[in-house]
Input
Amino acid sequence: MLLQAQNQVYTKPHSCMDEGTPFLYNWQDIETKFSKRLHISMVECKSFFRYAAKWDYLKMNTYFSLVKEGRITKINAQQYWLGKLPYFEEVYKFKYLLDVE
Output
């Protein structure tokens, strides 16, 4: 019963985060802030993050290592990703847009 109740409130993060990521952050919030920052649609935003995951711009191995070391926790995980928004913006402008044209 408890597991069933937990599954009902579970919200899946972005598909590029499916590698067994501890759910320490709200990925939808990160996408929303990124799309507003760049004035792009959520469809475009999701496309960008799929691209970023495919080409390892998300640097998930670094994130996983920091989680494993205990340097990223539920307390600071959201800020970790929000702090990456300027980097993601650079990737969007100087890699993604060039590759999709």
User: Anything to note?
Assistant: The chain has six helices and no strands. The helical segments are 2-9, 27-38, 42-54, 60-69, 77-83, 85-100.
